[in-house]
Fold each of these.
Amino acid sequence: LLFPVSNLCGKCKPRDTDLLQPSLNFLYCSLHQTTPCSQQRAVAVLLSNVSLLELLQKVLECTWLRSPPPAYLSSEDALLCSGWLLVASLLLYQHRYNTEVHQTLSLDLTKVLNAVIFKKKKPILLLVSIMQFLRAILRQNFSSSLLVIVGQNTAQGATQPQPSSLQDAALHPLTSQQVFSLVVSLQNLLVHKDLLLSQAVLACLETLVEYLYVKNQDVALHVASQPWHRFLLFTLLSGGQKSFLQPEVLRLMTLFLRYQSSNIISQKEISQILQEATEANLAELPEATSRALHLFLCQV
């Protein structure tokens, strides 16, 4: 089915939402709900379809052309979500299996970052989808053979980037200003306390700090130890008797422990989490909480 569905997508235009939406979702599910052997073949089929990749390029570019969004998830927004999630998956599996690429995708990094930094009432699912993509390119150090990154730091014709500082040179193709703006936006999104959004934000924040730690440890430790993080924790802990056992709180605590942000998390908070964990019925904890608690205890 991958052949006819992917070929059908390649013949569509981005405005054919009624046909493209289920088709892209089918391709996405085919990548994720199959055996590793079939998954490798599925990736090869999709990446060999030049028309499909050209269509995905056009779909993603529609993100920057959106008119003022409605209060609900429109069919156009839903198609954008499917496009970003499918491309993020293709990036992940192309890297995993080192699959041959027949057509590259080109994206402006500044526009991708600004889509998260300047949210402008975007639907939550669209923000989540873009953050999944951003996480994928961060994990691959912006070096995927499927993707060509363009933007203010990658001007055509320049043999070497011309960074404004040594710090920006280390973070290339990101700039320190983009990094700090993105971190503040991720912090603000966490305050919404939406489970799906929180999981995507935390995954993106974790991957971003890992990327920074490899590029420039000083910047990574600076980001992890921002005093605003402590205010964010107090905001997340504002309700519930067992509020330390929220998955987003546990994952944030784990992140601060990993990068030794002693000004954000103290021995007192660690002791409180351990105390709440001993009093809780671990078998009844939600899966997300159990997984986050396990990672926290391993980090401790």
Amino acid sequence: MPPPLKELRVKTQYEKHKEVSTSQGVKILGKDLEKTLAGLPLLVAHREDEIPVLRDELERELKQTLSCIKLEEKGVYVQASTLGSLEALLEFLRTSKVPYAGINIGPVHKKDVMKASTMLEHDVQYAVILAFDVKVERESQEMADSLGVRIFSAEIIYHLFDSFTKYREDYKKAKQDEYKNIAVFPVKLRVLPQFIFNSRDPIVMGVTVEAGVLRQGTPLCVPTKGFVDIGIVTSIEMNHKSVDSAKKGQEICIKIEPIPGESPKMYGRHFEATDLMVSKITRASIDALKNWFRDDMQKTDWQLIMELKKTFEII
């Protein structure tokens, strides 16, 4: 310790002590102390044969400390330099609602990449290692590249999180593009009989959105007429302007084109103005909405999904 009334930072002759009490600043002299972990005990071996015993004790201590942290079944793999920085990163992930399935302290080794790669079987977007202020070994990076595990490394927590956030957004957008033809948003439409502009191939008519949201590309059917498939909505107009979607209560003009490979349906023969048209949902379309379009769905949309599930008898 420094002499009385002196600071640790001031260059002066230090006083040596056998022990110190709490809340006192000290400097510890020793070799390889940079390898110690903040938050864990520092043990001293007086004889060579004590080293393996003390090493085992420290490993047990570390495993016990890490085992107290609750992990999720699906999530990212988190690597940090110290317990303190690990806790800081985990708290940041918790507040940002990012799940984590694995944690470790120290450099990223090949075994860490192997653990993170298990997410490739469950959810590819979580096959990620967030390396906070730690070294990524060359062999580990090569292994990660070959397996398809992404490693994000940074010394500042916000830079690390920004990189991961952009990756997730890009991944979600790619998945939305992939599933856009499978995901069917729930909607109920009421025909406006005074606005029938073309009754067959393509059907052009005015409708009112009774519930849900109508989007371009939505397949429509009529449950009251034996679930006959009317066709696919290829354009939506509101006040003579083309729009991508329409919400509950809006009156719009839509064009319905036949489903490829099926014979065109006709208004007045296959369905009437008294029949409600609904989006044709399936188990696959519901799963696509849950996984990739949840942010675009309102509570009322999910209620309509539940109603349509009973109509189509989807389990």
